[in-house]
Design a protein that fits this description.
This protein is an alpha/beta fold. It has eleven helices and 13 strands. The strands form four sheets. Strands 3-2-1-4-5-6-11 form a seven-stranded parallel β-sheet, with helices on both faces. A two-stranded parallel ribbon has the order 7-10. The protein has a two-stranded parallel sheet with strand order 8-13. Helix 1 (about 10-20) links the parallel strand 1 (about 1-5) and strand 2. Helix 1 packs across helix 8, helix 3 (about 60-70) runs parallel beside helix 5 (about 95-115) and helix 7 (about 200-210) crosses helix 11. The radius of gyration is 19 Å and the shape is globular. It starts with a strand and ends in a 7-residue tail after the last helix. It binds nicotinamide-adenine-dinucleotide and uridine-diphosphate-N-acetylglucosamine. Nicotinamide-adenine-dinucleotide (NAD) binds near residues 12, 124 and 177.
């Protein structure tokens, strides 16, 4: 299939691009590099051994997007493009709603005008809200989001569901990711956050190479095995493979399906830190800090639906995630810009 990846130069998009090529598909990227750079696409090309068609454009620019659809007969779209920093979304809500919602609306209009009706969307476990029970299942009603970023994911899910209700010939897959970490095992592509990382694994990676001097552990008094927060970390390559299967699934049906992509196992902050230290032979100095506002004690996925509908299960271990992250970080100490 010829598949458009909006935001395909980003962390998850670049890994998905590799897996799509290796499964015999033809990905085409559109990205405005607001949170990435063209070097990531060059690296993908090195891994797969051929050029990847790539357009530099803002998905909100309808004229530019229409031209891309005129030039390519797409079978499906994977919509990664979006701003994703939770704290920044609280400080700049209008920018987040404008970027994430407008890009989706423009994309859907252009798809409709070009008769492309299959879309896989990057949603997030954040749309569940703070559920009192684990694991999180797709049929749990949302308890609302805690920040504008989360609400954009919630609203986009509703926009896509609404389109399927209006025109049942559409095929929509809403993938709710848990906590994607890790990097491609080549060490060529990985996560390259600009500025101080907000998320745990990129922070650990920068402490590991001495760029930051310690990790603040946000709370050790949660009701968990060691008092620290528990999450469902998933290797980005497993996640990328889930997208390849989701495209095949979307091609064989119509309607709207929500699917969790997670491992189904929880890992605490300290377990992740200790595994990282052990497999990489480095020390991660930790300081126990107050809880981070908005955090919950535990979340992890029920991945049954992904197994049943896509034939997908996560294969990589926490050890793999730690090893691959460290390899990318040490080979690219300044990220792609180094
Ligand atoms: P990323 O920032 O690395 O990738 C997003 C890409 O979209 C970037 O390359 C950025 O330049 C591009 N982009 C943003 N707005 C654009 C626009 N208007 N036009 C064109 N390109 C635009 O993030 P990621 O981690 O790869 O995440 C991909 C998607 O998955 C995002 O929608 C994100 O919200 C979602 N998601 C990510 C996580 C996570 O932990 N990484 C978890 C759940 C959901
Ligand atoms: C966060 C977002 C979520 C988003 C996801 C992926 C919040 C409240 N949630 O999820 O909406 O979809 O990122 O982008 O921001 N931790 C530390 N020290 C750190 C960083 C994190 O102890 O420096 C802890 C956290 O308290 C948490 C765990 O590590 O227990 C994971 O945190 P993080 O990587 O930020 O992911 P989430 O909070 O699960």
């Amino acid at each position: 299939m010829k598949i458009l990846l909006t935001g395909g130069a980003g962390f998850i998009g670049s890994h998905t691009c590799v897996e799509l090529c290796q499964a015999g598909h033809e990905p085409v990227i559109v990205d405005n590099y607001v949170n990435s750079c063209s070097e990531a696409v060059r690296r993908v090309e090195r891994i797969v051994g051929h050029a990847i068609p790539c357009y530099e454009a803002d998905v909100r620019n309808k004229e530019a997007l229409s031209r891309i659809f005129d030039e390519n007969a797409f079978d499906a779209v994977i919509h990664f493009a979006g701003l994703k920093a939770v704290g920044e979304s609280v400080a700049q809500p209008l920018r987040y709603y404008r970027n994430n919602l407008d890009s989706t609306l423009t994309l859907m209009e252009v798809m409709q005008e070009h008769g492309v009706r299959r879309i896989v969307f990057s949603s997030s476990a954040t749309v569940y809200g703070n559920q009192p029970v684990v694991p999180y299942r797709e049929d749990m009603p949302s308890l609302g989001c805690t920040n504008p970023y989360g609400w954009t994911k919630f609203m986009i899910e509703k926009i896509l569901e609404g389109q399927v209700n209006a025109d049942p010939s559409w095929s929509v897959v809403l993938l709710r990711y848990f906590n994607p970490i890790g990097a491609h095992e080549s060490g060529l592509i990985g996560e390259d956050p600009s500025g101080l990382p907000n998320n745990l694994m990129p922070y650990i990676a920068k402490v590991a190479v001495g760029e930051l001097d310690h990790l603040n552990v946000f709370g050790n008094d949660y009701p968990t095995k060691d008092g620290t927060g528990v999450r469902d970390y998933i290797h980005v390559v497993d996640l990328a493979k889930g997208h390849v299967l989701a495209c095949g699934y979307a091609a064989g049906r119509t309607g709207c399906e929500i699917i969790n992509l997670g491992t189904g196992s929880g890992c605490s902050v300290l377990e992740l830190v200790h595994t990282f230290e052990r497999v990489n032979g480095v020390r991660i100095p930790c300081v126990i800090a107050p809880r981070r506002p908005g955090d919950i004690a535990v979340n992890y996925a029920d991945p049954t639906r992904a197994r049943e509908l896509l034939g997908w299960t996560a294969e990589k271990t926490i050890e793999d995630m730690c090893r691959d992250t460290y390899r990318f970080q040490t080979r690219n100490p300044k990220g792609y810009r180094g």
